[in-house]
Write a structure and sequence with these properties.
The chain is an alpha/beta fold and 436 residues long. It has 13 helices and 21 strands. The strands form six sheets. It has a six-stranded mixed beta sheet, with helices on both faces. A five-stranded antiparallel beta sheet has the order 1-10-9-5-6. Strands 2-4-7 form a three-stranded antiparallel beta sheet, with no helix packed on it. Helix 4 packs parallel to helix 6.
């Protein structure tokens, strides 16, 4: 039996003359028979907790930063009405760090034999699966002097998906894609383009595009138009090793890489290309392949949601082997990893020739904007040291990027908010140049 605050006050006041002789609550209640009887009756009239029945419904997934609703239905099968305080417990990351958890606490009244529905609002601050902990119920008697308390395990899981904040850049990139597709007057020609149609020659057209046979049958000079090839293969490779665990500002490097991967997948699938995903450190953490254009983005989002960076050094040889197994010849490989000198020079560079011989390779990395700010620090000895450290780090990243470029790799080094559109721009540039 749980004593409420009201009970404790009444017991203390009623037992004040004998408080010294009977210091325990049991002794106090024993010398105050009316109060003891009231407490026992109140306890007996409180609805039992163990017989309560619970069911859940509501959202099973939510995008990071959005709000999810989880409904809890309480059924009271006992002949006594339920007056209770209820706590629907979830992990702390189910709310922002500066938010209160009052959303998990409810005051509920359920008449005998009836049911009531409660709603807990979640706003998770991290990706991954959030599992409900337990439901704690404190059932009060009609006087509020005593209460029964118990716990129930009512399982429910809400999967927190990546935020995909870069989707705001998708309309502008799709407009450029329509230009490449020949839906406007901008047309390109290259190794990765295919014949589209004929049109009249206008001054400035490439004379190599003149179709002389068609011109002989017409009264005007005809030129061929070209469009980028479709049905190309793109494999996005996420490095989930220790370097992905670092944070740039408030954003983990892995989350920024995921954002870039989602924008590229959305753009490439609209272009008619086939997109796959491989997450790897020392083993495959996630794999998406063979999905249709309409299914690839949801599949990638679901696969990325539970991913966490592993505090291990990425096995570059294993990553290269897994990439070659999952990418047909002539694919575009977009590797989202770090540009730190040691992992690249000791791990990635030795295996790059295996990839560049068969594929077009892009290496994209999250840059820390604080390094750029450090290089401009002046005014004190400490600032000068910061500027020297920032310059050294910046020079080292540039040198690493140059090493990769010598192996025929396209390098993207951008801050978290600029990485996704920069990767999309590289994809469009490769399309325009006929390399994809």
């Amino acid at each position: 039996m749980a004593l409420t605050g009201r009970t404790a006050l009444l017991a203390a006041l009623g037992s004040l003359p004998v408080g010294i002789l009977a210091p325990s609550w049991t002794g106090m209640l024993a010398v105050n028979a009316p109060l003891s009887l009231a407490i026992l009756c109140d306890y007996a009239l409180a609805a039992p907790v163990r017989t309560l029945r619970f069911t859940r419904s509501g959202d099973t997934s939510v995008r990071l930063g959005d709000e999810a609703q989880v409904h809890l239905t309480v059924t009271n099968p006992s002949p006594r009405p339920l007056r209770a305080d209820l706590r629907d417990a979830w992990p702390p990351s189910s709310w922002p760090a500066d938010a209160t958890t009052e959303a998990s606490r409810h005051r509920v009244r359920v008449p005998a034999g009836e049911r009531r529905s409660l709603t807990t609002l979640l706003r998770p601050s991290r990706r991954g699966d959030r599992h409900s902990a337990r439901v704690t119920v404190r059932s009060y008697g009609p006087l509020g002097l005593a209460a029964r308390q118990g716990n129930h395990g009512i399982p429910w899981t809400v999967r927190v998906l990546p935020a995909f904040e870069s989707r705001k850049h998708l309309p502008s990139r799709l407009a450029r894609l329509r230009e490449l597709d020949g839906r406007t007057s901008v047309l390109v020609r290259g190794q990765g383009t295919e014949f589209d149609s004929l049109r009249d020659y206008v001054p400035g057209d490439d004379t190599r595009s003149i179709d002389w046979r068609a011109t002989a049958r017409r009264s005007a000079v005809a030129v061929r138009t070209w469009r980028p090839e479709r049905d190309r293969h793109i494999l996005v490779v996420l490095d989930t090793g220790r370097t992905a665990a670092g944070r740039v500002g408030d954003v983990p490097r892995l989350d920024a890489s995921m954002d870039a991967a989602l924008l590229l997948a959305a753009l490439a699938s609209r272009a008619g290309d086939r997109v796959g995903l491989l997450a790897y450190d020392r083993r495959v953490r996630a794999h998406v392949q063979g999905r249709s254009a309409g299914d690839v983005l949801p599949a990638m989002v679901t696969a990325m949601a539970p991913l966490e960076a592993e505090l291990v050094e990425t096995d570059a040889r294993g990553l290269s082997a897994a990439t070659l197994r999952n990418a047909p010849r002539g694919s575009l490989i977009v590797l989202l990893t770090s540009l730190d000198a040691a992992p690249v020079e000791d791990g990635l560079l030795p295996v790059l020739p295996q990839l560049t011989r068969r594929h077009t390779v892009v290496v994209a990395s999250v840059a820390d904007p604080r390094i750029e700010r450090m290089t401009r620090s002046r005014g004190s000895a400490q600032n000068v040291y910061e500027a020297a450290a920032g310059t050294q780090a910046h020079t080292q990243r540039r040198r690493t990027a140059e090493l990769l470029q010598r192996h025929g790799v396209t390098v993207v080094d951008a801050t978290p908010e600029k990485l996704a559109p920069a990767v999309a721009d590289v994809y469009l540039a490769l399309k325009a140049a006929g390399r994809l």
